[in-house]
Queue: 3 jobs
Job 1
Amino acid sequence: MNIDNRSSQFWNWFNSNKAKYEYTLANLNSLHQGEIDEAMNVFEEKLHVYNENIWFRMGGEKPYELLITAEGNVEQFDAVIDLVNSAHTIENWKIIPFIQARDISKFNYRLDDFELTEKDVFFTYTENLSGENGYYLETMFYVTDDKFINDDSFKSSIIRIAETALGEYDFAKIIGFIDVEKVSNTYSEHKSEMLPIYKLKDISESIKNKLRE
């Protein structure tokens, strides 16, 4: 079965079954967790007939949101775009490609009794407008406490906060090399270049504008 037939098959199935998911989302607080899990597992199985390397998120109120994501896997971006574009209009639903950028002021990551927020993360960057090596922005991230540098899951938390700021598509397409250092170790050296993490969105938009020129 070719990809066009698989996408049509998926959306035909969803149109025939969307009422079940509308009911599930409208009654999350009253349904047994097992019922919710069963519905979502069936959806995942149907989605993976189209492509086993893409995923989804559902939520919101009418119109409900169905987000299709490649979880940052650039090789699967075309599959996400093709599937979303083939959905056309589905009553009561908004079909969204990729995890969208969100307000990072609400981001937090906890390690024992320490909390990492957007106020604790800074970055420097170098532009790479040629796109050599597959990215346009080389970044170095800095944090205010080395507890996080020594934590094995720290780098993934930095990736999450950067992806939250930019959204899945721009993060994967724009950001390149990621490394982490403690602010106090290099602050004097990079003070004039160091920016708070919330500025990452502005820098990304500037890069995109330059690439359009």
Job 2
Amino acid sequence: AHGILFFRKGNFISEYSFPDVLLVAFPLKERAVLQGEEEETQMQDKLDANNVAYTTEKLSFHTDYPVLQFPPGIQFLHCIKQTSTGGESEVVDGFHVANRFKEQNPYAFKILTSTFVDFTDIGVDYCDFAMQAKQRIIDVDEKGQVVRINFNNATRDTIFDIPAEKVKPFYAALKDYVGFLNSTDYKYSYKMKPGDIVVFDNWRLLHGRQSYQAGAGISRHLEGAYADWDVVMSRLRILQKNVLRRQCL
């Protein structure tokens, strides 16, 4: 799949915190509403889980935070502990699937690129939060090119503010698209080991996880962080400028 990088055995993490390592590359935008004073999220199974990511259950394909008007562009995941059975990660290239979907079902594609869906996430984690946003499942630009996927069934609202006659066609289109996402022709599975780091485009890739069996303690532990594309592209331009300057010396 395009839009993903793997780093095996990131042993340097043991000497520094995960956010400290990322800050060497570029500054992370603080998302206080999501994480309080923490700069990284801890994904591990716990009894008082307020998010399916903190359970041992299967995670269906999704993008993170469509409840935000501007979802984070890049996600980082660092594996600290991995369960022996289950827990495999899965990714699928949402852009590629959307383009194939458009070829085979242009009517359904038009529905998913024009219908605004309500997303909501209300609760308490590091802080109280009540996030809401309207997103199209498939965002396209003025040329009709796919630019972002916004889909997380766990945070899709029970409210669906569209005319009644459009509800059934929408769900038929969404069911068809989800079927494409879960096709073995498109999805890729891998299992992270302690020390591994994965970086992926949260606007392009949908990710998920197979279920796993809970142990006596924490069975599986990943820590994650986010960065906005604006921050990343700014850093890349600065690095490119510095390289060109050195070449001219």
Job 3
Amino acid sequence: MEAISEVKRAAAKAGRKGCGTAFAAALAAELSTVRIDREKERAQLKEQNRRLRIQLRDTAEAVHAAGELLVRLREAEEASTLEKERTAALLQENEKLKKQLEKLRKKHEMELETMKVHLAESRLPESALGAFYHHENERTPEYSCDAPLTHDDDQSWRAAFASAYE
């Protein structure tokens, strides 16, 4: 504002001296140039402001996207941690089940051995089993249609296991 008042004073002085029209024309031309320069500067500042706003919007979008990525990354890390914990628990349970399976296998083997021993101890006397081991070509008098049935072997078998039936 001060510059304008100085120009007006200078114009008033010049008008008194008689060279007012030339000075006024020069002053008007200078003011026009200043206005044009200001308009250009204002347009440049508007354009720069527009570009900066676009850049700011892009930056805000990038920051937002980065935030979303961080959230996803955090979720993925949590999921990974949970999965690792679950895997460790499953491995531990797997080991426990393997040990249990091994114990059951050993127990089964021991039971089989015990059953074999009991079976060996409780075998029927050979006289009781002799009739079952005949050859097909051989005909034994006990099982022939012509021979009378004998119960001697049956009685000896019953006598051997009589204590078990009591």
